[in-house]
Design a protein that fits this description.
The complex is a heterodimer of chains A (127) and B (154). Chain A has 127 residues and is an alpha/beta fold. Helices cover 43% and strands 19% of the residues of chain A. Chain A is built from 6 helices and 5 strands. Chain A has a 5-stranded parallel beta sheet with strand order 2-1-3-4-5, with helices on both faces. In chain A, strand 4, helix 4 and strand 5 form a beta-alpha-beta unit. In chain A, helix 2 runs parallel beside helix 3. With 154 residues, chain B is of the alpha+beta class. In chain B, strand 2 and strand 3 form a beta hairpin.
């Protein structure tokens, strides 16, 4: 399975990518929504994307909206992973089409639990 | 005292920062605790990380620790080996991200929504001209002091 980690913090990208790698995922990284869209436009296919909210060039909410506008990207599961914790922000992200919302800080187990709920844990990990 | 983050108290700052360190840095709780009263806070070569937020009134959340502790925090976050050399870019990104997450979680306590700015890291403390400090807690991470302060800025 493949994950796209979108965050302007290289540190956070590495932390999240490490968690996904331990769950058996192949990962790619993008520093903002625009870079992530470029990867999708280039034909890269992912099962799940984790998305920070505050990023330069294109923020997470704009990325979610752009992905949801494209029928051919409907299979991509979108998980916001952000410090934005207000109820209104969560509602906006879910209304725009995000499937899940995680607030930093998170633990590896919390991400694993979310992926399990979404049916996105690779079989070799659950076996 | 007026100002959005004036409603946040030291216990909340300590609890939020401890939770963040447990989840992001240490992988377990208990390694970031209040500094023992009476112990001198000695900080050589202090390094500051801060994030500003705008929620009607502008506020700042600032972390200060010595540079070697900031390097160690970076090694922990990036799963580097003990003593491994930390580059300036990694240091600024990792230490700034801790400030960003602390600031974001404190912002969530506010009764109004606000906007979080990009974190900054510098050996020079941000200007305190026109700034009012609401609260400050001194914490000990593995014995090293970390000061978290909350400000109203103009």
């Amino acid at each position: 399975m493949r994950a796209l980690v979108i965050d302007d913090s290289r540190t956070m990208r590495r932390i999240i990518a490490r968690i996904f790698a331990n769950l058996g995922y192949e990962t790619m990284e993008a520093g903002n929504g625009r870079e992530a869209l470029d990867l999708l436009e280039a034909g890269e296919v992912f099962d799940v994307a984790t998305i920070d909210w505050n990023m330069p060039d294109m923020d997470g909410l704009a990325f979610v909206t752009a992905v949801r506008a494209r029928h051919d990207w409907r299979g991509l599961t979108l998980m916001m992973v952000t410090t934005e914790a207000e109820h209104g922000q969560i509602v906006r992200a879910l209304a725009a089409g995000a499937h899940e919302y995680m607030i930093k800080p998170f633990t590896p187990d919390a991400i694993g639990d979310k992926l399990a709920l979404l049916g996105l844990i690779p079989l070799e990990v659950t076996a | 005292m007026s100002g959005a983050l004036a409603i946040v108290n030291g216990d909340q700052i300590t609890a939020i920062t401890a939770e963040i360190f447990a989840a992001m840095v240490d992988g377990k709780p208990g390694l970031l605790v209040p500094w023992s009263v009476g112990d001198d806070v000695l900080m050589n070569d202090p390094l500051h990380a801060w994030v500003d937020m705008h929620a009607g009134i502008s506020n700042r959340v600032q972390l200060t620790t010595d540079a070697e502790t900031a390097h160690e925090l970076t090694r922990m976050l990036l799963a580097m080996t003990p003593g491994e050399e930390v580059g300036e870019e990694d240091l600024n990104d990792a230490y700034g991200e801790i400030a960003n997450v602390v600031g974001g979680n404190l912002k969530a306590l506010l009764p109004v929504q606000g906007q979080l700015m990009m974190p900054q890291v510098s050996r020079e403390a941000p200007s305190d001209e026109g700034a009012v400090q609401f609260d400050e807690v001194t914490l000990a991470w593995r014995g090293h002091p970390i000061i978290v302060s909350v400000w109203m800025i103009r």
